[in-house]
Amino acid sequence: MTAKIFIDGEAGTTGLQIKARLEGRGDIELLHLPESERKNVDARREFLNAADLAILCLPDDAAREAVALIENPATRVIDSSTAHRTASGWVYGFPEYQAGQRGLIANAKRVANPGCYAIASIACLHPLVSGGLIQPDWPVTINAVSGYSGGGKSLIAEYEDGSRGASSGPPFFTYGHSLSHKHVPEITRWSGLSHAPVFMPSVGRFAQGMIVQLPLPLWSMPGSLTPADIHGALAAHYAGERCVRVAALDAGRKLPRLEPEALNGTNELALTVFASEDGSQAVVTALLDNLGKGASGQAVQNLNLMLGFPELAGLQE
């Protein structure tokens, strides 16, 4: 079986990464819209309706417009924008989310690809909330740092402007100071929280890679929780998974540092539980490539599930 795939927005960061993962596959036929026609609505409509599966790598409003252009009931969609991640009728594209999620994705007409910060945060939170270790109304805080590629073309240009040398751009900065980052509704919805977490993102002077941190003051939480409880819930939830792995409980004490670029080029998400000596505090960290499991790699994983291909085809294992 050869599937016709159209990437609407293939010239962007996510689109280029998806294209690179799909090119050369014998089970995929990529439909390419000439550059001169990429803003031609009629041309886009034709390609969207000719595809077995369309992947949208567009701003939110353009993604909604693209969905509205699809008239062919056989055309299936993966949307990598924020537009449909909490929308009714769309399946959340995180296969490891819970039992049965792969089946939902495989049978879906419309799949919302997770955001990078969001998939990492949800990977930490959802097993703990659904398992009753964190109450839905607990005041959750999340800290995160990403490579500058997550900021799109403008931020990439700021850091990679050759006229200013290889070290262009600030070494580190925080943003999202209104505490209303676009991933917060997605994190809240799919983590099972009753209230939005306090989420503070930041960017470092490296192209790609990400660390997300979930601090847990266990001493103040109901249930006399221990780091072993937290680790056990995560390990049980992701047992047998190939893309999401949980480090051994003592790994945190043996790990001198955690580097955000460590999983670049992979479709992996690694969870580690760090704990204080007395067990009163813990931090769950998620490490991933923001352009891999956090974007393009996850889109390809969803595509494979939807088309009945081996789940990790085209992805580094």
What are its keywords?
317 residues, alpha/beta, Rossmann fold, Dihydrodipicolinate Reductase, domain 2, 8-stranded mixed sheet, 6-stranded parallel sheet, 10 helices, 31% helix, globular
In short:
With 317 residues, this protein is α/β, with parallel strands linked by helices. It has 2 domains: 3-113 and 294-307, Rossmann fold; 116-291, Dihydrodipicolinate Reductase, domain 2 (2-Layer Sandwich).
Q: What is the number of beta strands?
A: 14
Order of helices and strands: EHEHEHEEHEHEHEHEEEHEHEEH
As an assembly, this protein is: single chain
Q: What proportion of the residues form beta strands (DSSP E)?
A: 15-25%
Please mark out the parts with pLDDT under 50 across 5 or more consecutive residues, or reply none. Answer: none
Q: What is the helical fraction, as a range of percent?
A: 25-40%
How would you explain this protein's 3D organization?
The chain has helices spanning 13-22, 41-50, 60-69, 101-106, 116-130, 152-159, 184-191, 227-237, 251-254, 292-307; strands spanning 3-8, 28-31, 53-56, 76-79, 91-92, 110-112, 141-147, 172-174, 198-200, 202-204, 210-216, 244-246, 269-275, 282-288. The strands form two sheets. Strands 7, 8, 9, 10, 11, 12, 13 and 14 form an eight-stranded mixed β-sheet that branches. Strands 2-1-3-4-6-5 form a six-stranded parallel β-sheet, with helices on both faces. The chain has ten helices and 14 strands. It has 317 residues and is of the alpha/beta class. The radius of gyration is 20 Å and the shape is globular. It has two domains: 3-113 and 294-307, NAD(P)-binding Rossmann-like Domain (Rossmann fold, 3-Layer(aba) Sandwich); 116-291, Dihydrodipicolinate Reductase, domain 2 (2-Layer Sandwich). The mean pLDDT is 95.
